[in-house]
Amino acid sequence: MHRTAALVRACRPRQWLKNLLVFAAPAAAGALGDPRTLLLCGVAFALFCLAASGTYLLNDVRDAARDREHPRKRYRPVASGDLPAPLALTVGALFVTVAPLASLALGNAHLTLVLVGYVLLTLAYTLWLKDVVVCDLVAVASCHMLRAMAGGIVVGVPLTSWFVIVVALAALLVVVGKREAELRVTAREGDTPIPGTEEGSTAHPTRTALLGYTPAYLSHMRVMASGAMIVTYCLWALEQGGGPQSVFHAVSIVPFIMFVLRYNLLVDRGAGEEPEEIALRDRPLQLALVTLALLVGLGIYL
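Now predict its structure.
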């Protein structure tokens, strides 16, 4: 029973929130009113949860030694010894193999290719890319993009350029914010100098790539992604034709900007290392997201 609980924790159910991106493209296309669409998106969501949990397990096995040096990650089941590494490795390999194979039952070869690409990219990240500066940011952001693409592919919804750009920039914003928060934590907790910090600032990084970043660089990237995302969303919202629906799209710009500003404020305050925790706990951010979803939904489905 103890090992089962440890295995469930190692699968990181809270991070399955990221896989809700599979609903984004069908929702933006106004297709979620179809029960078949909901079913297909639900299956795609489950497959990505399975694949993601498999890669988390494999990642934790590889990083166990480094995680033990981290003030928070040392409590992960593999690093703490609650979950034996051989068991985590076996279950992880099983999950990343089963997820793409199970997708074949849907008869959608493109979805299977996306899942295979997702698994290969996450494995490359675990084994190599996570230690390569900039490549680690692009790899994680690309994983988010594959989730969003899968939702459109599984139900046959075209992915517009507006949708792709906004999702890509949002993914980059979240990943950069996460790295910035991690850099600040390691600077407080460790003993290795971090480039670009005040003299005497130190870190004991669990990510080698962190030594290649400076707080100023990550902050500039975050500002760049935020600004580009806001401009892109505004252009999309203001080009949604006439009629009463266009009013909802136009007004949705306000909660969208509030969401971006609130997220940046939280990162500046030191949050952001676990984006899913922000989404689950920060009430102003949740209010902005709910309002945004309501207004966009009214504009699309009315």
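The longest strand covers residues 192-193.
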